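lol ok so funny story. i was supposed to be doing the assay writeup but got distracted and ended up predicting the structure for this chain instead. priorities right. anyway since i did it might as well share w the group, maybe its usefull for someone
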Amino acid sequence: MGTIIPLTPVEPRARKPAWVKVRAPGSANYLRLKGLMRDLRLHTVCEEARCPNIGECWHHGTATFMILGDICTRACGYCAVQTGRPDALDAAEPDNVARAIEALGLAYVVITSVDRDDLPDGGASVFGETVRRVRFRQPACRIEVLIPDFKGDEAALKTVLDAGPDVLNHNIETVPRLYRKARTGGRYSRSLELLSRAHHDAPGIPTKSGLMVGLGEEWDEIVQTIADLGRVGCAILTIGQYLRPSPAHLPMSRYYHPAEFAELGRLARQMGFGHVESGPLVRSSYHAHAQADAYQAQSRRPTE
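and the output, tada:
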């Protein structure tokens, strides 16, 4: 597991390499989905986190719904979501999310949230109710939840698992050495413990996690983090490039070359992950339905 030499090292001050450039959004489907979100007073992580794939995903009628409002109680150094004192919960939010999913006829959705450390259960009960409302309005829809760490609250995690999502996702985000400056309020060991507990308590629900590179981590640290995720039973892994949202956020150390992402993907598959998505523009929710399908297909293959 030695250090790999980047094939094309690109400093962040240089012009963006071709592999991280995307077309500006504006298709008819994109505008339709955006209008629906505003009509139902809904938030998406696609917008709040300034995801580079928003044009592609919304053009195809898929989105990651963000519940519990749009103001986060934490201030992670890489994240574009607004931080501060959140507003009161919107009691209609779970059903509004379900109504939007029903109106769009979606077959696969991702439901995520801001951190709500101000709430006794971190918002777990709202996750559970949203899953149930989606099941009621769109029974065939598969649901992936991308949850915060709930400050390690076991009962909160159980609340989400009991609602029966199809995939439980919690992003590790970065290597342990960078947690203090990158993940305010987060703990590497706590995130691993959440994934481990979910895998143990609900083995029929595959767990998933995401890792971003470009914050100053070393290659061996990335490989060790992947190994740690594999050790706690994580089934699906995404690896993508950190892109600095603004000058106020953590600086980017460099762009990783597509060949490096391919090598990380190869190493992760070698470690036994059911499915790995690794590339410059990969985000945790990017092609989420295809990731789940690929994992299910892989898990059904007979072992040699």
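The CA atoms of residues 132 and 208 lie 21 Å apart. The radius of gyration is 18 Å.
back to the writeup now i swear
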